[in-house]
């Protein structure tokens, strides 16, 4: 999705979109704008997606079929922009997300997966953009944004029990930035170059807690033909655990063909919680636009070690995908992927799961 966006926008606006916020996660691409009177403007966007997902794990000899949301669940986004005042524009965004499966569908006592992703106010001017409130974080954002395969689709099929959203390429190519309370600043674009810094509420996980804010930052360069990015994360804890990491990547567009690669390494941020494990991961992707149809393939690996450097497990995720725009707002999606997890010291695979998914993603 982000590749399509950056191909059709000017380089400066494309850079601003990538650096400031992930459009396909935080808003819908086809938001409808309208006047509220007296110079106020509003917008509303809606995304609904549903997939038939079949998962077959040879390692556990288990399988299941579900109808569920994909990687970026159904959502409603509402925005309001105040009239410009002394060169400053203030706007607010609110977004609610709902997986299509509820507790009664899952039958396991889980919640309906309803949640508020975004509740933030932006202050923009010649100085750049300041954002206050709950919004998507920074670390790993651009690597996720350029994941054409699973971002509008499914990716990793999730658990055998199904339910909720799926996992895309999380831990097989990028860290999930997730949505957090924080304060962010994004510079204006300087010939395609921009940067973002932010302070967020600390992530408190399985072990030591933190009273200090989490720091994240990113730098992005966007042009008509290629994008480059890098991001970092750092948070101290009260004990010995660390929460640090870096992420780098790039994409080149050669006509209808796009090639993407990303690499990241971090300690204590496996699945967004402080931990003693170190997770190293990367992915590569190639996609080709053939009229209204996008064909693609991607492959990524991870390596998880403990604080002493001893291996815990190695994983691989391979994906084939096809996206077809049946109408300007409706995309038909088909995917196959295989996730394999092996013990680092050898032995039988703990996961060998094939996922087949077919579904629709509708946006306005």
> CATH class, please?
Mainly Beta
CATH superfamily: Porin
Strand arrangement within the widest β-sheet reads: 2-4-5-6-7-8-9-10-11-12-13-14-15-16-17-18
Largest beta-sheet characterization: 16 strands, antiparallel, barrel
Radius of gyration: 20 Å
Domain tally? 1
Spans of at least 5 consecutive residues with low confidence: 1-24, 106-111
The first-to-last residue Cα distance is 14 Å
Helix content: under 10%
What is the second-level CATH architecture?
A: Beta Barrel
What is the CATH topology classification name?
Porin
Oligomer: single chain
**Topology, number of strands:** 18
Strand pairing plus helix content: what structural class? mainly beta
Instruction: Count every helix, treating DSSP H or I runs of 4 or more residues as helices.
Output: 5
Beta content: over 45%
Order of helices and strands: HHHEEEEEHEEHEEEEEEEEEEE
What number is the mean pLDDT?
Answer: 84
Q: What general outline do the C-alpha atoms trace?
A: globular
What would your notes on this structure say?
With 364 residues, this protein is mainly beta. The chain has one domain (2-363): Beta Barrel (Porin), CATH 2.40.160.10. It has 5 helices and 18 strands. The chain has helices at residues 2-8, 11-20, 23-26, 103-106, 141-145; strands spanning 32-37, 40-57, 62-68, 74-81, 89-98, 114-125, 128-136, 179-186, 193-200, 214-222, 226-235, 243-254, 257-267, 278-290, 293-305, 311-325, 330-343, 351-363. Strands 2-4-5-6-7-8-9-10-11-12-13-14-15-16-17-18 form a 16-stranded antiparallel beta barrel. Strand 2 (40-57) and strand 3 form a beta hairpin. Helix 1 packs antiparallel against helix 2.
């Amino acid at each position: 999705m982000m590749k399509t966006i950056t191909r059709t926008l000017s380089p400066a606006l494309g850079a601003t979109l990538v650096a400031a916020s992930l459009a396909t996660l935080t808003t819908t691409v086809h938001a409808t704008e309208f006047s509220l009177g007296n110079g106020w403007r509003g917008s509303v966007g809606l995304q609904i997606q549903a997939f038939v997902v079949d998962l077959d794990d040879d390692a556990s000899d288990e399988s299941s079929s579900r109808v569920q949301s994909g990687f970026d669940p159904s959502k409603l986004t509402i925005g309001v922009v105040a009239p410009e005042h002394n060169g400053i524009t203030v706007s607010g965004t609110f977004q609610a997300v709902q997986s299509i499966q509820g507790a009664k569908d899952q039958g396991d006592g889980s919640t309906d997966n309803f949640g508020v992703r975004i509740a933030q106010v932006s202050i923009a001017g010649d100085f750049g953009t300041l954002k206050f409130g709950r919004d998507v974080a920074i670390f790993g954002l651009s690597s996720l944004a350029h994941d054409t395969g699973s971002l509008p689709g499914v990716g990793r099929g999730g658990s055998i029990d199904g339910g909720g959203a799926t996992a895309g390429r999380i831990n097989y190519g990028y860290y999930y930035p997730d949505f957090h309370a924080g304060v962010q600043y994004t510079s204006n674009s300087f010939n395609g170059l921009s940067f973002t810094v932010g302070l967020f509420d600390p992530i408190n996980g399985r072990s030591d807690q933190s009273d200090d804010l989490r720091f994240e930052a990113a730098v992005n360069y966007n042009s008509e033909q290629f994008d480059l990015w890098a991001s970092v994360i750092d948070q101290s804890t009260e004990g010995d655990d660390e929460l640090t990491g870096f992420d780098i990547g790039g994409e080149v567009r050669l006509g209808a063909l796009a090639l993407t690669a990303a690499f990241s390494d971090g300690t204590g941020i496996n699945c967004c919680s402080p931990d003693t494990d170190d997770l190293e991961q990367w992915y590569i992707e190639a996609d080709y636009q053939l009229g209204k149809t996008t064909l693609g393939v991607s492959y990524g690996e991870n390596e998880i070690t403990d604080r002493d450097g001893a291996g815990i497990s190695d994983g691989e995720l391979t994906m084939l995908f096809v996206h077809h725009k049946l109408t300007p707002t409706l995309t038909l999606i088909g995917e196959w992927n295989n996730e394999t997890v092996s013990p680092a010291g050898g032995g039988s695979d703990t996961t060998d799961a094939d996922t087949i998914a077919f579904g629709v993603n509708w946006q306005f």
